[in-house]
Amino acid sequence: MSIKRFFSLLGMSYKMAVKSLGSRKLRSILTILGIIIGPAVIVMMGAVVGGYSQYILNQVTSLGQNNIMITPSSDYTLTSSDLSYFKSFSYVVNAVPYYLTQATVTVGNSQEQIYIYCTDVNFVLHAIGGLEIEEGSAPSQGDVLDALIGHKVAYDQNGNLEYGVGDVVPLKVFTKITNGIPQYKTVNVIVSGVLKEYGGALIFSPDQTIFLDTDAGQKLLGLNSWSGILVQVSDPIYVKDFVSTVESTYGNKVSVISFSAIADIVSSITGAVNYINYVASLSAFAVAIAGTTATMVTSVIERTKEIGVMKSIGYTNREIIIMILSESTLMSFIAAVAGSLLGVAGSFVLGGSGMTIRAGTNTVVINSHPLFSAHLFITSIGLTILVGVVGGILPAYMASRIPPAVALRYE
């Protein structure tokens, strides 16, 4: 068959397919609805999972892929000797200790739970991308009362400024648990600077944080031991070497968290979820193949005489197969487009409510837009058209094997 003849036959086959589907509207619509489920699920779940995954990756990488957090176990205390050891690595740019605790502050008419980090604030500003001061400056080194406050500490829910530069912020600070009862102390800090709004955060929330100088941890808050040490290496390629060396040296005495490793884990989880999504979608495609086959078998039976006439005037078995497959793939293509559009709409509905993560008493709500890609749509449409091909093969073969004489006598 020449190329010209092939495309001419293909064009005529699709014209006949349109006419055939139009003559059996209800059956065709029901078959298309059965096929739609597959592409709709793939696009909807793929876009939602991709959106949340990208959000988390952006949050993690914004903390700096060359930053590492080291926290001690409950029976180990980090000291200046440990700090000196971490700084001894040739590729370590800097390492600073930090104290971390929680507090309650009154912002407008509400009580807000916030975090307090006592550390080298200039290190934090340099290490975390996107963290900028809106007004004022970072606390002076050695000044235990100066505080750099997050946007949601400075402003209430209506956007009104509650604490500006020079204002005093009263804090109810958690110190320890005695006999199962949390102990608090009240301290006052003076605002030296206000951070720009950082936005949603998963691991670290600057908007709900107050930063103090390292000395404030012991002198102002009465904390006796470091909560951890922040380490910055010169390049992310050194992270794995540093992490493995520290883990082998300290064993279970410390936990080492690298943000680049978290990003790798998130990517792996996303890949696994997408794989599960595709596997789950296959069941919908399997049902669609069965429905397409049933529809096309019925169509072939109804068109037996028509097929006999075509074969008697010279149509070959191959051309009959192309004609039947044109009809099944046309239904699949319509379902692929409609299903993809339905998946787009569904992804906005599904992702619009946000994802809530609870850790103890803390709750984080992630709001992310669905992430669409060409690969997602190509996969969706490709698999759906494959349904039409697979579902139409048996009926097409049946049609091609009908003897012309028998077909012409069929009523």
The backbone outline, from C-alpha atoms, is elongated
Helix count, DSSP H or I runs of 4 or more residues:
12
The total beta strand count reads: 12
Supply the number of structural domains: 2
N- and C-termini, Cα separation: 32 Å
Q: Report on the biggest sheet.
A: 6 strands, mixed, barrel
Q: What portion of residues belong to β-strands?
A: 15-25%
Percent helix, as a range, is: 40-55%
**What is Rg?**
32 Å
Low-pLDDT windows of residues: none
Mean pLDDT: 84
Trace the largest sheet across and list its strands: 2-3-8-5-7-6
String of helices and strands? HHEHEEHEEHEEEHEHEHHHEEHH
- Helix/strand-derived category reads alpha+beta
Domain ABC3 transporter permease C-terminal: 279-404
InterPro entries: ABC3_permease_C, MacB_PCD, Macrolide_Exporter_MacB
GO molecular function, one term: transmembrane transporter activity
Main location: membrane
What does this structure look like?
The chain has 12 helices and 12 strands. The chain is α+β, with helices and mostly antiparallel strands and 411 residues long. The chain has 2 domains: 204 residues, no CATH class; 168 residues, no CATH class. The two termini are 32 Å apart.
Briefly say what this structure is.
Helices cover 53% and strands 22% of the residues. It has 411 residues and is an alpha+beta fold.
Protein traits:
cell membrane; two-stranded antiparallel ribbon; 53% helix; 12 strands; Macrolide_Exporter_MacB; 411 residues; 2 domains; 22% strand; six-stranded mixed beta barrel; alpha+beta
